[in-house]
Amino acid sequence: MEMESLIRNLSQMQIQASFEENAPVTQAQCNAEAVRITGESVHPTAVQGGCSYTVVTEGGSLVVQFRRSDSALDLDFLQDIEQAYKGFVPHHESVGKIGKVHIYRMNNVGGVAMYLARDQLHANGCLLLRKTLQDYARFFSSAWWNTPQTMKDADRGELLQTYDAQLSVLESGLPNRFHQTLNKVKSRLPELFAGDWPMIPNHIDLQENSIHVDTNSGSLVGICDWKETEVSPFGMSLGVLEAMLGIRRVNGGYTYLPNQQALRDVFWAAFKKMMKGYDDRVQVARIVGLFLDNGFQHDEDGNTVPAQEGTDDLIFLDAVILGNSSSQ
């Protein structure tokens, strides 16, 4: 399959880059250490990360991850994340180092990354994807009910100022067609920092490669790669729902599935049931998250600037904010 080939090639490049940065530590050394830790033979996972090397045991029950020193995991924070999303997050533990490379052992959530399971999820009118969306509503709402009160809170006033400033930059830098929506969510931004709206651990790099599903049932079996997580208002990471309802192509362009509205209704019906009601602030948080995640790009000098016409991020925003779907 074309997607599998792309992922395989990307993973090989990431593995090579990882060990170039971690020299003199080698892939063979890491594999041998993983065998010692687990007592089983291992092989690299199909999907790798940009700052780590990950292997899974032959039996499939354990994962060992090697992370460079500037990307070590915060295990205390991960405990809070595991509680907030109980049943969806693997348990992480530190099991030593090789040189400056940190080693972590975790249970394998199993399943297949969503973008490797598209054919199965989209078959028969997206029958299995409906189950995934129902489970995603359960995952997402879990943080509302289960985020530990002892988790260190972000400075709400400081974060509000940061988001407000970022939205102002986008309002002045993105094309005019986005300004009305930006102005509306900017005016409601303080509502996300009210005392009755929780701050939760939001996975800020949540993509289909981190979402694992059972290809026989469509069940959401787990979410991986929690290194990029921040404490921020509930709803800020909901934008990944859009990626589940369409296809964002590698060579640019984004198209929704033909029955995306029916699928969207499946998610929201399950979400409202889990939440025992509905507060439209979740939509404000969703849109703010979409703008902050996709509204910026880096220029030639490495500066962060508003996304320009023709870029993948702006094409995506056109589709999910304004409904201008593209198949470029």
Description:
With 328 residues, this protein is of the alpha+beta class. The chain has two domains: 2-107, Phosphorylase Kinase, domain 1 (2-Layer Sandwich); 112-322, Aminoglycoside 3'-phosphotransferase, Chain: A, domain 2, CATH 3.90.1200. 44% of the residues lie in helices and 18% in strands. The protein is built from ten helices and 14 strands. The strands form five sheets. It has a five-stranded antiparallel β-sheet, sandwiched between helices. It has a three-stranded antiparallel β-sheet with strand order 6-8-9, with helices on one face. The mean pLDDT is 92.
How would you concisely characterize the structure shown here?
The protein has helices spanning 2-21, 27-38, 75-84, 118-146, 156-173, 179-188, 240-244, 260-275, 281-294, 312-322; strands at 42-44, 52-57, 62-67, 92-98, 101-107, 112-113, 199-203, 211-213, 220-223, 229-233, 246-248, 254-256, 296-298, 304-306. By secondary structure, the chain is of the alpha+beta class.
Structural class estimated from helices and strands: alpha+beta
Query: Spatial order of the strands in the main sheet?
Result: 1-2-3-5-4
* Total count of strands: 14
Terminal CA distance: 21 Å
Shape, per Cα inertia axes? globular
The oligomeric status of these chains comes to single chain
CATH top level of the largest domain? Alpha Beta
Tally of individual domains? 2
CATH-assigned fold name of the largest domain = Aminoglycoside 3'-phosphotransferase, Chain: A, domain 2
Radius of gyration, taken over Cα atoms and rounded to an integer in Å: 20 Å
Protein name: Aminoglycoside phosphotransferase domain-containing protein
InterPro entries: Kinase-like_dom_sf
Organism: Trichoderma lentiforme
